[in-house]
Design goal:
21% strand, five-stranded antiparallel beta sheet, elongated, 52% helix, alpha+beta, 3 helices
Length: 136
């Protein structure tokens, strides 16, 4: 066989190998996303899942501060509101990359189980200015 034909055969074999790897990666990614969605359906209430599906975020009430809510988007920073008004924006991520919308569940569980720890670990990206006391 001539060298040019051998080179084309080798390139074809490399291309097939690369294609097989891409197909495998895509398949495992799809499976991970499917498992993440199943976990969300298992752990969230129907109302929470509807909110996440409809608006792209999940609101979680603070267990430490009355009137405080954490708005957890599928991607991006966490908005914290107090009595319906924006209070601060947080940057906090799970240590490992999680598939699909599983990170939303990780934030929810962390807030509900250990809100003080969650706040200590988060970076405050923005905080509402302090209001001046009102004059009577």
């Amino acid at each position: 066989m001539d060298e040019a034909v051998l080179a084309w055969v080798a390139l074809f074999a490399l291309g097939l190998g690369a294609l097989a790897i891409l197909v495998w990666c895509f398949h495992t990614t799809v499976q991970a996303h499917m498992r993440a969605e199943a976990l969300l359906r298992e752990q969230l209430t129907p109302a929470e899942l509807e909110q996440l599906n409809r608006f792209g975020y999940l609101r979680v009430a603070s267990q430490l501060t009355s009137g405080r809510e954490f708005e957890i988007p599928v991607r991006g920073s966490i908005m914290v509101s107090q009595d319906g008004k924006p209070l601060m924006r947080l940057c906090i991520r799970p240590a490992d990359l999680l598939p699909g919308r599983e990170a939303v569940l990780a934030h929810k569980i962390h807030i509900e189980a250990a809100e003080e720890d969650y706040m200590r670990r988060a970076n405050v990206m923005w905080h509402a200015p302090a209001r001046a006391p009102e004059l009577v």
